[in-house]
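With this grant's support, we have paired protein sequences with backbone structure tokens. One protein thus recorded is set out beneath this paragraph:

_____
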Amino acid sequence: MTVSTDNAIGNTFAKLSFLVVDDFENFRLSMRQMLRSCGADKIELLPNASTAVQYCSYNHVDVVLCDYNLGEGKDGQHILEELRHKKLLKRSSLFLMVTAETSKEMVMGAREYQPDAYLTKPINRTMLEKRLSGLISQRNALLPINREIDRENFPEAISLCLQTLPAKPRYKTWLTKTLADLYFQVGDFSHALKIYDDVLAQRDLSWARLGRGKILLANQNYDDAAITLKDLVAKHPDYMEAYDLLAEALERQGRPTQAQQILEKAAEHSPNALLRQKHLATLAASNQDMATASDAWRQTVALGTYSIHDSYEHYLAMGQSLSDLSEGDTSDEGSAHADEALTILRRMEKRFADKDIIKVRSRIVQSRVHVGQGRMGEARKAIESIAEELDDPNMMDPDVGLDYAKTLFRLGRDEEAKSLLASLANRFHDNPTLLHKIENLLDEPVGFRQKLQARSLNRDGIKAFEAGKLDEAVATFSQALEIVPSHASLNLNLVQVLMKQYQETPGDPDLLKRCDVYLSRLSGLPEQHRQYRRLMSLDKKLKGMMS
């Protein structure tokens, strides 16, 4: 290396600010000495995550050298996660993860937040200089583009990419990938798709295939998106972003069970991604797979301990899923789930004590847990402890109201629950999502296992009806209605079968009388209910048959 090259590298390092984060002072001092010998002058040394994030909040840093293991508390992944989330690192900044650990779990977890490079301990000056020089050289060459992206001036960034491509072919991959992403950001999907297709025509690169799937998804071409992303996952099983997009495509196709299976595979490969665990938990709960939901919420809570994404909602959702899982199950396993639910809810109250709503939400679920284990006295005591906060239903948060109504049903206070839900429907009449949740709770105000049983019977009844087995269908729907007597769809299904029986065996007035009984159950069904039109149609048909 010549003197002029040494001077050039020294000048490059001298212009940049460096941050070294490591819990061992000797290593910090050693890194500072090596950086100084490379020509660096502005070097900050910090021992832990909190001081590092605070420093980046008030100071621009060009290069972060952060150890993965920082002792008790947040690790390097948490720092990178928080800096990215808070946008405290500019695109022109470099983040290098320094570690002596090379386990797949660590690498996969850290890679989710895209560090610019890894440095494996032990580190010497030659290795450090060589690695940093290459990264800094690329940083400087692409600095104008990254500055415009940081300013969210995407059209100018696109223009600069197009100008730079022929001038700096060395960075063709980075420029092509960035250009396609910028077109996506501004909504120019056709240009983005052309870039990905052109790249794939020359070589099957995973990032281009992922981008193509992303564009197809944005264009609502869910079938082709799913095919593209399935192929990518099969060829590159460690490409985690592909799993997330594939799960989204499957959900959009109306295949939530398959979407859940994809996220389960992703969680096996990279278990330390909090947001993916949260997505898996939410999806599993909507699929009524409460065991998987509870496991995923458990992992989400654990990962959130030192994460910027930590939230009381994770604890609450875990408590709710464990409550559903333990309801009516007094076996050792059921009791264990109930105890875990109470423990996590109490932890939530302590951890987020500054939020007034936490205690209310916690006690509502705790009450339901106690009911599920047959401890009615404890259940009532939990609700009484927050009676004042639940005094005015007209001021109640809708999510709190829904959860409270669910608990009131379990406590046998059905009329109070219905009154509360009516109040919520009135206040939020323009919120279709909430109205749908209210309908579902009114239809199925029972425990998790009873709900699953009723739904299974409903499916069996429909199959029997479609097969022409009317007596079997009547018996099955009637059995389901013993569990959820107010379920609108089930009552109407049974009426439909009874009417069919009457048409096949006319002259049996008891069949029509039974129809009238089941329709009368739904006399208070609001016009907004998705079964209202069907109710009116069958009611009109019944009157015609009875006249």
The longest strand covers residues 94-99. The domain at 3-141 is CATH 3.40.50.2300 (Rossmann fold).
